[in-house]
Amino acid sequence: MADSTRQAGSVAVIGSGGIGGYLAGALERVGRDVTLCVRTPFDRLVITDASGEREVPVRVVADPAKVGPIDWVLVTTKAQDTASAEPWFRTLVGPTTRVVVIQNGVGQAERARPHLPAEVAVLPAIIYCSVERTAPGRITHHGATRMSVPAGGDGAAFAALFAGTPFEITQEADFVTVAWRKLLSNAVVNPITALTLRRIVVFNDPAIQDLARGLMDEVIRVANAEGARLTGEDATRVLDSYRRISGDGGSSMLYDRLAGRPLEHAHLTGAVVAAAERHGIAVPLNRAILALAGAASGQGLAGDR
Ligand SMILES: NC(=O)c1ccc[n+]([C@@H]2O[C@H](COP(=O)([O-])OP(=O)(O)OC[C@H]3O[C@@H](n4cnc5c(N)ncnc54)[C@H](OP(=O)(O)O)[C@@H]3O)[C@@H](O)[C@H]2O)c1
């Protein structure tokens, strides 16, 4: 593991979607040396948030051969694309590099670990931030700027990296509970918005609230079998927060379905169902959602011809 007292600020962000683009913009604004490592090249990174529209003068690189070892690597691909970042890991990661996997779901560090040298520090991070990539290089921030990482030297160094940005970084002693609490929300809001093609206001429908409550009851049983400490109050808080949302906030799975991109369901609802199987817990509602999201992730009628 890298020396946690080392002051370092060069950052590579792998993935230029909503999260990667927004984090790159936040770090660039406080003077960090940021490289955006992209799959699909674009001309300009433009971020729109409550303060207006801003072009971010960030270095954009599409070829892993054009970069070298760096202090921080932030992985912001969808969970299912983590392995495809391996060519970037090969050139960006040196012995003192810290890798932070910023994704929804659980097991973030475990997903990246097989693709990295054994001695490299890998930190999981949960992000609370509603951002939408409206076109390549065009990012709209809808709200929230917070991340959680496990407590410890690397977590503290990560918090220092974001000093001066709008991001509040919380360092958590019980990261398992934090990750499952976020999954409690994502296993509901992501598939329901993506399957109904509605934004979060769909949760004002009482029938959707009932479905969400049933899904969350199952997730809580599985989460606690995995070592988390969740209760029905966590589910109530999630539902209350959705009912308060009146604007145009959606979910990353909704944005992906609208854009015809693959969905992340296998690492959200799929993670719940897989853990349920390990513990022998029945999760019929989550199984039904997993089947529907899997079918919706295909090409629809065009692909059925
Ligand atoms: N968006 C949100 O509001 C939000 C909120 C909280 C958490 N999250 C989570 O944060 C993670 C990232 O979500 P997101 O919304 O930012 O996803 P996204 O908009 O789909 O962005 C993912 C980016 O990763 C890029 N990518 C994929 N494989 C790559 C590779 N091998 N090399 C370089 N770039 C690669 C994609 O490239 P292309 O441009 O070619 O597609 C895309 O730009 C997900 O786990 C999501 O669940 C998202």
UniProtKB/TrEMBL annotation:
GO terms for biological process: pantothenate biosynthetic process. Pathway: Cofactor biosynthesis; (R)-pantothenate biosynthesis; (R)-pantoate from 3-methyl-2-oxobutanoate: step 2/2. InterPro entries: 6-PGluconate_DH-like_C_sf, 6PGD_dom2, ApbA, KPA_reductase, KPR-Related, KPR_N, NAD(P)-bd_dom_sf. PANTHER family: 2-DEHYDROPANTOATE 2-REDUCTASE (PTHR21708:SF26), PROBABLE 2-DEHYDROPANTOATE 2-REDUCTASE (PTHR21708). Catalyzes the NADPH-dependent reduction of ketopantoate into pantoic acid. NCBIfam families: apbA_panE (TIGR00745), PRK06522.2-2 (NF005091). GO terms for cellular component: cytoplasm. This is 2-dehydropantoate 2-reductase. It is an enzyme of class 1 (oxidoreductase). The keyword NADP applies. Keywords: NADP, Oxidoreductase, Pantothenate biosynthesis. Residues 11-150 form the Ketopantoate reductase N-terminal domain. It comes from Methylobacterium aquaticum. It comes from the Bacteria. Belongs to the ketopantoate reductase family. The lineage of its organism: Bacteria, Pseudomonadati, Pseudomonadota, Alphaproteobacteria, Hyphomicrobiales. Residues 175-294 form the Ketopantoate reductase C-terminal domain. GO terms for molecular function: 2-dehydropantoate 2-reductase activity. It holds the Pfam family ApbA_C. Its EC number is 1.1.1.169. It catalyses: (R)-pantoate + NADP(+) = 2-dehydropantoate + NADPH + H(+).
